[in-house]
Amino acid sequence: MGVVSQDALNQLQALMDQVEEPLKKTFQNVHQGLVTENLVRFLRAREWNASKAHKMLVDCLIWRVQNEIDNILSKPIVPPDLYRAVRDSQLIGVSGYSREGLPVFAIGVGLSTFDKASVHYYVQSHIQINEYRDCVILPSASRKHGRPITTCIKVLDMTGLKLSALNQIKLLTIISSIDDLNYPEKTNTYYIVNAPYIFSACWKVVKPLLQERTRRKVQVLPGSGRDELLKVMDYESLPHFCKKEGSGSAKHSVTGSQNCYSLDHPFHQELYNYMKQQSRIHEAVVPIKQGSFHVDFPEPPAEEEEIAKTIESEIHKFKGTNGDSDYNMAFKSMVIED
């Protein structure tokens, strides 16, 4: 790090040394022993301004304490049928690791419907996956490779993206805001695959609104992205929807153990078993209450609000000229060009 960044790091460290309980304890759960690396994350998110990074980090810690985020992995979504419904409609999973040891998260943006449970369950599920990544997956990868691994790779599958995605923008904005404010700089690269025309249109108007550090992380790949992704990971770590040479992927084209979205996939089995184990440990001290784990939704940053409004406006333009069926007929075979 250069002199300026080191100065900012020293300033932030001095400010955080003054933090008292219970914020100090939850900060330990955030940094997992990697204090410097986590301070740097918040500094990057605030353009190396130590006072702004300090406010962001303290706000994050307050949010964690007020919403009992440190205990969220001890509160599995029950019954299992409800959790399976969440997994079937909020498509996310881990397919493997890059050659550098970064976990590869696959996200089915286009085929996620978010229509099988309340918003609170989807938010709870998303935060649980974030916490499992930070408390279990990344520390395990760090130990395996003998160096700090603090970020992941995300492969976003746009298969099935339709104009009706407008109905999901509010929920997606909530989830995105939670990530931006409380889990900044956790993604090394976003790979966009199987992108239809509607994504191309939205991307053109959204891209200029993103901060430069975010734009640099986004790579839009042709088709399923298979050939490009094989440059950074082995075939076994490719998400199931990237293992074909052409574009597009069927939600149920592979078995549960191969489909990294499925509750039957090893990642989700390990995650759910871990949460059940944590639940039994926690329940011995505090009885578990049934029902969703309600988390306060943060006010979206101005950038998030502007992006959401821009996407809504762009989609409304399409709705004014084409229905979903007409759109699919016209643009079914089109993919994004970088």
Description:
By secondary structure, the protein is an alpha/beta fold. The protein folds into two domains: 3-66, Orthogonal Bundle (Helicase, Ruva Protein, domain 3); 73-278, CRAL-TRIO lipid binding domain (Phosphatidylinositol Transfer Protein Sec14p, 3-Layer(aba) Sandwich). Helices cover 49% and strands 8% of the residues. The chain has helices at 3-16, 23-31, 35-45, 50-66, 80-89, 119-145, 169-182, 197-206, 212-215, 226-229, 266-283, 302-319, 324-331, and strands spanning 92-97, 103-108, 152-157, 187-193, 218-220. It has a five-stranded mixed β-sheet. A hairpin with a 5-residue loop joins strand 1 (92-97) and strand 2. The longest helix is centred in the middle third of the chain and has 27 residues, at 119-145. Pfam families: CRAL_TRIO, CRAL_TRIO_N. Residues 79-239 form the CRAL-TRIO domain.
Q: What's the CATH superfamily of the largest domain, by name?
A: CRAL-TRIO lipid binding domain
Q: What is the subunit organization of this protein?
A: single chain
Largest sheet: 5 strands, mixed
Kindly estimate the percentage of residues that lie in beta strands according to DSSP. 5-15%
Span from first to last CA? 31 Å
Give the averaged pLDDT, no decimals: 85
CATH architecture of the largest domain: 3-Layer(aba) Sandwich
Task: Report the radius of gyration as a whole number of Å.
Answer: 20 Å
**In order across it, which strands form the biggest sheet?**
1-2-3-4-5
SS element count, helices: 13
Shape: globular
Order of helix and strand elements from N to C terminus: HHHHHEEHEHEHHEHHHH
Number of domains: 2
Domain CRAL-TRIO: 79-239
Organism: Lupinus angustifolius (Narrow-leaved blue lupine)
InterPro entries: CRAL-TRIO_dom, CRAL-TRIO_dom_sf, CRAL/TRIO_N_dom, CRAL/TRIO_N_dom_sf
Protein name: CRAL-TRIO domain-containing protein
